Amino acid sequence: MPFVLTPLPGIPSIRAGDDLAGLALAGTARSGLRLEDGDILVIAQKVVSKVEGRIVDLASVHPSPEAKRLAVESLKDPRLVELILRESRVVLRVRPGVIVVEHRLGFVCANAGIDRSNIETPGGSESVLLLPEDPDASAEKIRQALQSATGANLGVLIIDSHGRAWRLGTVGAAIGLAGIPALVDLRGEMDLYGYRLESTVVAAADELASAASLVMGQAAEGLPFIHVRGFPYPLRDSKLQELIRPRELDLFR
Amino acid sequence: MPFVLTPLPGIPSIRAGDDLAGLALAGTARSGLRLEDGDILVIAQKVVSKVEGRIVDLASVHPSPEAKRLAVESLKDPRLVELILRESRVVLRVRPGVIVVEHRLGFVCANAGIDRSNIETPGGSESVLLLPEDPDASAEKIRQALQSATGANLGVLIIDSHGRAWRLGTVGAAIGLAGIPALVDLRGEMDLYGYRLESTVVAAADELASAASLVMGQAAEGLPFIHVRGFPYPLRDSKLQELIRPRELDLFR
Predict the structure, then answer these.
(1) What is the pLDDT of residue A1?
(2) Minimum-distance CB partner of A214 among B4, B93, B232
(3) Residue ranges of B 198-227 with Cβ closer than 8 A to chain A
(4) What pLDDT is recorded for position B222?
(5) CA triple B89-B95-B96, angle to 5 deg
(6) CA distance B239 to B137
(7) What is the pLDDT of residues A33-47, one digit of tens each?
(8) Which of A211, B105, B108, B188 could be stapled to A166 by a disulfide with Cβ–Cβ 3.0 to 4.6 Å?
(9) What is the pLDDT of residue B143?
């Protein structure tokens, strides 16, 4: 079966309180698609954060002395740095333009996933968008709504773009899952010649995130939903936490 | 346009000297597909290595004192460690089960990309498979053959599975490119609200590698070719090297 990712067209600009499941269903219908058993909806983090009101006006943020110190080191706005610190457990590296942190959600990322792009700024105020409070819960809520509306067994994946330690450019990464296997363990399986596969735990949710990110683009708030058919593994419940390398196995911090 | 990845069925077990372009064309025809302008063929590293005769009989390898020392530390076969060292520029970390290196091709990976799975072992000898000598050149050669046969403008991508510093599980990663943009730079573009995107260089080739890896599976030497239609960026020449983070920008080694 082919693996088919279709961006849903005609999605309006998203505002706090909007019904993402309803918008996705309408977009799916406009595309001539339906949500069927085994289908997945991939959603850009940005629209989930907006719906959940995770916009912060920088004028309301009072930076701590630590934020001011890191702002000098990173050449960033101290109010933005304050938010990065509030959203993080540990700061791993600071360089001009980037603060690499362990996010409170567990993963390592740049600037706690906070950016300024695609935020409406009425009256010229400066606002930024934080990641959702609990992306697994956000994904599950949308999944329940989609399943209720369609009667199908579905998956929902919320994605963001992450840099990598040793490679340039960003790739899509899973930040919230519902009904999708974070990891698929193939270690027990034999290959064609009867060897047991040695170290083959596949980060299926991240591979799906990268695939969807590719067609979502970056500038395109107009393409925040990707309909996926032909995901090659059975749907199952899992959590973002499955994808996080435990600190004691981390060789590079 | 949807983004469609189709594994080509019925590919026989690959041997040294086989014609990968011919096998891919036959597989494409069996699927009822054609290679058209803008289409991409993604190929598993393993079959490229086999065709190029990159199999090494461990009985022929004599480990150096350094390999013997690292073999104790990593709990690996000293002959395998010797090959890992020969294929690498620098050893970054050693732990039981894994040697993280900077490969001679430039990227950071575990065990220099050498594994034992899916290698035929006639007479009970132990063999392993090295990465292709020059995967960009391998991809370009296959691309030329496919373009000559079809008259279409095509891309070819050779992929492997890589671990990540902070996340569990492997994801598909580009190791050889022909006609595919390694990176796509969206930084000049405005988003919907007139903000310039801040740090949006997309590792498009790696996102494509992850998408294709997902449908290729791991145990499946039977699915080494993925036909891709609807890649959302224009094809252009680029090299693997574009994806490698320069050492001076590496914060984590």
Answers:
(1) 82
(2) B232
(3) 198-204, 206-208, 210-211, 213-215, 217-219, 221-222
(4) 64
(5) 125
(6) 9
(7) 999 999 999 999 999
(8) B108
(9) 98
Tokens found for residue B35: 């290679």
Lowest mean pLDDT among A63-72, A155-164, A219-228: A219-228
Measure in Å the smallest separation between the Cα of B86 and chain A Cα atoms: 21
Are B6 and A3 within 8 A, CB to CB? yes
Place of tokens 């299926």: A204
Q: Within 13 Å of residue A60, how many CA atoms lie on the same side as its CB? A: 7
Rounded to a whole number, what is the distance in Å from the CA of B134 to chain A's nearest CA? 18
**Arithmetic mean of pLDDT, B204-233:** 89
Which residue do the tokens 């050669």 mark? Answer: B141
Residues of A in contact with B118 (CB under 8 A): 191-193, 195
CB contact under 8 A, A243 and B168: yes
- The pLDDT of A194-206, averaged and rounded, is 74
Which residue from B97, B173, B204 is facing A214, i.e. has the nearest CB?
B204
The answer to whether residue B218 scores a pLDDT higher than 80 is no
In this complex, is the C-beta atom of B173 within 8 Å of any C-beta atom belonging to chain A? Answer: yes
Closest by Cα among A175, A224, A228, A226 to A14: A224
The pLDDT value given to residue A119:
55
Optimal mutation site among B210, B235, B242, interface A, most CBs of chain A within 10 A = B210
Complex-level ipTM: 0.94
pLDDT value at position B1? 82
At residue A213's C-alpha, the angle toward residues A142 and A153, to 5°, is 35
Separation in Å, CA of B248 to nearest CA in chain A: 11
Q: Is A78 on the interface with B (CB under 8 A)?
A: no
Chain B residues lying within 8 Å of A84, measured CB to CB: none
Length of chain B: 253
Is the overall model pTM greater than 0.90, yes or no? yes
Q: Tens digits of per-residue pLDDT, A137-161? A: 999 999 999 999 999 999 999 999 9
Looking at residue B122, the DSSP 8-state letter turns out to be G
Q: How far, in Å, CA of B140 to CA of B179, rounded?
A: 8
Strand positions, DSSP E, A52-149: 55-57, 88-95, 98-103, 108-110, 127-129
Q: Do B232 and A215 touch (CB under 8 A)?
A: yes
Cα A142 to Cα A225: distance, rounded to the nearest angstrom: 12
Nearest to B53 by CA among B18, B25, B11: B18
Nearest by Cα to A82 from A111, A107, A54? A111
Query: Cα(B138)–Cα(B132) distance, rounded to whole angstroms?
Result: 8
